[in-house]
Amino acid sequence: MGSVQDTLALVTLEEIRATAARIANIIVHTPLIRAPFDGVAGRGTGREIFLKAESLQPIGSFKLRGASNKILQLTPEEVRRGVITYSSGNHAQGVAYAAREVGAKAVIVMPSNAPAIKKAATLALGAEVVDVGPASSERLAKSDELIAQHGYVVVPPYDDEKIIAGQATCGLEIVNDLPDVDLVLSPVSGGGLLSGTATAVKLLKPGTKVFGIEPELAADATESFRSGKLTTWPAELTTRTICDGLRTQSLGERNFAHIQRYVDGIINVTEAEVRAAMRAIVATARIVPEPSGAVTTAALLFHANELPPYKKAVAIVSGGNVDPKLLAEILTENQVIAAHASR
């Protein structure tokens, strides 16, 4: 299997700890919520499942961790130039929020199919939004054009050491709060959260297994992980999934290097499994997940045979920025199916 680990420096535990101190006044140390899912965890199973509620961050997503770490290290001259990023929504809000904290202008290049709730939240934080087509390559191209014109400082969504170190603080919190955790599940798309979390967890507790979870309709990271070579999927494939935060077409190079070193496996889940997991999270943990944040729970509920044995697992609920209409549809669809079946 090929590897890019030798050419890219990996984030260290010292960097992760320094990052945690740096961003402590902006992010929230999110709780681990015990979720006794029937038949999977709880009394009589010998297993416990905890949800890492990143949906409780000020912007409703883990993305604030990496964006804050990057932006808080800008020079005064870079702050004056302003920042730019390309995002489907959650990273956009993270950049807008952190930029507002330091007084920098924020420009966000967003896909035309980004959820309205995420676009509205980004605008409410004072950012300027530029719309492009649905492909992540289109967002990157437009960002490059605006950087050349205006001199903005780019804050990448995932392929950056400071972004990875920021997301790694999620893993640092997990191990500090649950020292005997033996399985951690993270969503994966561009790879920021998975690469950071896996790095922190493995450096602190090497015996803990770390798995990435990805929609089967956008499984480019799975293909890359299994082949050992970065793979890109076309936008017409990745945009099929309901998980709008997991539609990135390829892992970042730096993220891939960390994932190759520290991640034990990647599992795919179906759209129906994600929807069922959202209902289970709301019913059991009383928190609201967006589809992208529910993939880890879907893996625990429906793919136990693909996971290693565990006693204490943590599933990261990466965000909670879900369109209210979609949430209502998902929460009530079982009732609709039952009503039709009874006729």
Would you kindly provide a written description of the structure presented here, covering whatever features stand out?
Keywords: Lyase, Pyridoxal phosphate. One of its GO terms (biological process) is L-serine catabolic process. This is Threonine/serine dehydratase. With 343 residues, this protein is an alpha/beta fold. It folds into two domains: 13-61 and 161-329, Rossmann fold, CATH 3.40.50.1100; 63-154, Rossmann fold (3-Layer(aba) Sandwich), CATH 3.40.50. The chain has 14 helices and ten strands. The chain has helices spanning 13-22, 63-71, 76-81, 90-102, 116-124, 136-150, 161-177, 192-204, 220-227, 235-238, 253-262, 271-285, 291-302, 324-341, and strands at residues 32-34, 48-53, 83-86, 106-111, 128-132, 153-154, 183-187, 209-215, 265-269, 312-317. A six-stranded mixed beta sheet has the order 1-2-10-7-8-9, sandwiched between helices. A four-stranded parallel beta sheet has the order 5-4-3-6, sandwiched between helices. Strand 4 (106-111), helix 5 and strand 5 (128-132) form a beta-alpha-beta unit. Helix 2 crosses helix 7. The model is unreliable at 336-343 (pLDDT under 50).
